[in-house]
Amino acid sequence: MAPKRHGITAAGTWIVDRVKTIDAYPAEDHLATILSEMRGGGGGAHNVVLDLALMKAPFPLRGQGVVGTDEDGKWLIQEAYKAGVDVVGLRTTKEQQTSYTDVMVSKSTGRRTFFHNRGANRLLDDDDLDPGTSKIIHVANLTLLDRIDFSAARTLQRLRASGVKTSVDAASSGPKRLGEVVVPALDHIDYLILNEVEAGDCAGIEVRKADGSLDRDALAAAARKLRRDNVVVVHMPEGAFAASAEGELWMPSKKAPKIISALGAGDALCAGVLYGLHEGWPIQQCLDLGHLAASACLGHETTTGGLRPVSEL
């Protein structure tokens, strides 16, 4: 008899963010003042599983990825372990240092600019992904996983054949890369969670007008183009759009009390949606929790520091 599936495994990128808040982002050859700096965990797999832990998800949480044997790698593992995440699937390596990103957060706008070293994430391969008895495996940041990207369809097909639901998000790597990596894997993805730029690039549809405003009709068309027998969720600052067997749904964002940084907000929304999907909630309730989680995330400098138990969001 097949084991009862329960819990979420988050696999993919594990990164240390070196977050520097600056007065304003400078032009080349100009100066910006660093107002504060701190270390935080980053990467889609890290953010989603830590967010779920901080939301006190009532099911097992597992992390999978590759980190270096350096201090950054040890710190990421310790932080996840302290949060109650099963870290057995976090492999360590001496071949590469732990992936890191220098994140410049502009105090004047709240927007972020990233300088990224792929590091140990380059070494994550198919053998590292094992859903165990999880109900969902979330593969985070396709297009940043060098050894998995171009065999993603085969990897996801293998995982799905075990009975687990597959969830995927991607990095904003441009239409060519997304078209080569994500689109061929669509038939093997149960839950596709992207931002509006990534969704538009995957579908080959421009979802923003010339003035930068959202084209809701184009967004819906992009989501429909990515639909198979799956759930597609597209998130953006204005809200989120879902296309599923339940139909199509637009839900505007929650008003954030104070925006300190947008770092990790998309992953927080993803975590909230996955929480609801795991629990079998209607898609509207999943999006609602996703927006609450994203709103909480906006109030902190790091990717996960603003998250709280669901009852407090």
Keywords:
313 residues; alpha/beta; 9-stranded mixed beta sheet; 4-stranded mixed beta sheet; 28% strand; globular
Task: Report the portion of residues in β strands.
Answer: 25-35%
- Range of helix content: 25-40%
Head-to-tail CA distance between termini: 39 Å
State the total count of DSSP E strands: 13
Main beta sheet: strand number and arrangement?
9 strands, mixed
Shape verdict: globular
Structural class: alpha/beta
Number of helices: 8
Strand order of the largest sheet: 5-4-1-8-9-10-11-12-13
| Whole-angstrom Rg | 18 Å
Low-confidence runs? none
Secondary-structure element sequence? EEEHEHEEEEHEHEHHEEEHH
What does the model show?
The chain is of the alpha/beta class. The chain has helices at residues 44-54, 71-82, 152-161, 175-181, 196-203, 216-226, 265-278, 283-297; strands at 8-12, 15-22, 34-42, 61-68, 86-93, 100-106, 112-117, 136-142, 165-170, 191-195, 231-236, 239-244, 247-252. The strands form 2 sheets. It has a 9-stranded mixed sheet, sandwiched between helices. Strand 9 (165-170), helix 4 (175-181) and strand 10 form a beta-alpha-beta unit. Helix 1 (44-54) crosses helix 7, helix 4 crosses helix 5 (196-203) and helix 5 packs across helix 6 (216-226). The longest helix is centred in the last third of the chain and has 15 residues, at 283-297.
Per-chain topology:
Elements: E1 8-12, E2 15-22, E3 34-42, H1 44-54, E4 61-68, H2 71-82, E5 86-93, E6 100-106, E7 112-117, E8 136-142, H3 152-161, E9 165-170, H4 175-181, E10 191-195, H5 196-203, H6 216-226, E11 231-236, E12 239-244, E13 247-252, H7 265-278, H8 283-297
Parallel strand pairs: 1-4, 1-8, 2-6, 4-5, 8-9, 9-10, 10-11
Antiparallel strand pairs: 2-3, 6-7, 11-12, 12-13
